[in-house]
């Protein structure tokens, strides 16, 4: 049987909920059928985070990723001695530097093939920016490590109820109309179609594209982008053989009877894509980056500083991210 390399997990911000959820996921590894994973750095952070949830977490220091597979049964494998002493809910520079180190090393290990995938713990982008993180998000950071253009790394949110892709991501709403181009829609839709086939076994996924404006522009009465930019991009993609429809009015596209009709919704901006998934699937939502030479997933939520260390954060999305990374890594290691 083919076995993928262990998954590399980056710690996330030590003051956030990431470390406690990684610890919780390890405790539930058997019942959740999780593939072996290891964390880069933060042994002390993980122990403290586990203690805050009244978990007695054994941590096993490993010298290389390959040791994680065997160590995983007896403890949470941690690679490297980098660490800090976090105060839950109070992010600081030292913690941000550790989060950046962990992210960077985990991504490099996935690129080198020593790790089967990277699962990123949540970071606060503004905090990491203070210690040298120059990208808008971890999606673009991982793209840089892979040597890709940012537009080739496509964010998808996936849960049991639906999958959504934001065409524009961390852009102010006022900039969105100017960023929506035929090229961008066509480029990202092609990446989505290829990645859903490669990593999710959907050979010809149905992509439903939202409009930008109310009622998808109502024939130009409520904005021109839907008819002048989005519709022609969809027509060109249909001519290439993609199963793609739209622009659909976004207000109704996420109703239950509509969701059955497509595999993924390509949305025009961040909140159009993330509100439905976080409303329907917050606790099982995974942020997965499509188009990369490596597998990268993350829970859909952020650092949630206000609840860190309080034993209330749900591990569902972290567990879902670990599970999806393991499944995609297996699929790549043994293509069907
Ligand atoms: N993948 C990542 O690295 C992400 C990072 N962020 C970052 O996180 C920081 C905080 O962002 P917010 O918008 O406040 O989002 P957030 O997801 O951290 O929190 C939003 C709300 O959901 C709750 N929440 C989040 N995760 C939860 C869980 N597992 N269980 C129970 N409740 C949970 C929080 O307590 C809060 O009420 C920002 O700096 C942002 O950049 C946000 C989203 C994703
Ligand atoms: N809103 C999604 C988010 O902030 C996660 O972005 P990324 O860090 O995964 O690029």
From TrEMBL:
Its cofactor is Zn(2+); Mg(2+); Co(2+). InterPro entries: PdxA, PdxA_fam. Its main location: cytoplasm. It comes from Novosphingobium malaysiense. This is 4-hydroxythreonine-4-phosphate dehydrogenase. It catalyses: 4-(phosphooxy)-L-threonine + NAD(+) = 3-amino-2-oxopropyl phosphate + CO2 + NADH. Its EC number is 1.1.1.262. The keyword Cytoplasm applies. Binds 1 divalent metal cation per subunit. Can use ions such as Zn(2+), Mg(2+) or Co(2+). Keywords: Cobalt, Cytoplasm, Magnesium, Metal-binding, NAD, NADP, Oxidoreductase, Pyridoxine biosynthesis, Zinc. The active site is located at the dimer interface. It is found in: Cytoplasm. GO terms for cellular component: cytoplasm. GO terms for biological process: pyridoxal phosphate biosynthetic process; pyridoxine biosynthetic process. Substrate binds at residues 139, 278, 287, 296. GO terms for molecular function: 4-hydroxythreonine-4-phosphate dehydrogenase activity; cobalt ion binding; magnesium ion binding; NAD binding; zinc ion binding. Pfam families: PdxA. Gene3D superfamilies: Isopropylmalate Dehydrogenase (3.40.718.10). Homodimer. The keyword Lipid metabolism does not apply.
């Amino acid at each position: 049987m083919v076995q993928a390399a262990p998954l590399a997990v980056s710690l996330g911000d030590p003051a956030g909920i990431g470390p406690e959820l990684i610890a919780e996921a390890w405790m539930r590894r058997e019942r959740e059928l999780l593939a072996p994973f290891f964390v880069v750095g933060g042994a002390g952070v993980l122990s403290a985070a586990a203690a805050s949830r009244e978990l007695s977490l054994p941590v096993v220091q490993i010298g290389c990723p390959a040791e994680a597979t065997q160590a995983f049964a007896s403890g949470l494998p941690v690679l490297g001695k980098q660490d800090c002493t976090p105060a839950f809910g109070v992010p600081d520079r030292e913690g941000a530097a550790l989060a950046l180190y962990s992210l960077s090393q985990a991504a490099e290990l996935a690129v080198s093939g020593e790790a089967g995938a990277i699962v990123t713990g949540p970071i606060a982008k503004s905090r990491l920016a203070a210690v040298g993180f120059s990208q808008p998000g971890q999606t673009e950071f991982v793209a840089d490590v892979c040597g890709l253009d940012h537009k080739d790394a496509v964010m998808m949110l996936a849960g049991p109820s639906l999958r959504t892709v934001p065409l524009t991501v961390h852009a102010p709403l006022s900039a969105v109309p100017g960023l929506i181009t035929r090229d961008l829609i066509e480029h990202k839709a092609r990446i989505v179609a290829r990645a859903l086939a490669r990593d999710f076994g959907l050979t010809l996924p149905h992509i439903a594209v939202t409009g930008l404006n109310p009622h998808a522009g109502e024939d130009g009465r409520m904005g021109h982008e839907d008819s002048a930019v989005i519709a022609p991009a969809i027509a060109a993609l249909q001519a290439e053989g993609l199963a793609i429809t739209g622009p659909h009015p976004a207000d109704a596209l996420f109703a239950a009877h509509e969701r059955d009709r497509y595999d993924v919704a390509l949305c025009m901006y961040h909140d159009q894509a993330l509100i439905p998934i976080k409303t329907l699937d917050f606790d099982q939502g995974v942020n997965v980056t499509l188009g990369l030479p490596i597998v990268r997933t993350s829970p859909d939520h952020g650092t949630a500083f206000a609840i860190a260390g309080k034993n209330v954060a749900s591990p569902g999305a972290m567990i879902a991210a670990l599970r999806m990374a393991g499944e995609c890594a297996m699929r790549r290691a043994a293509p069907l």
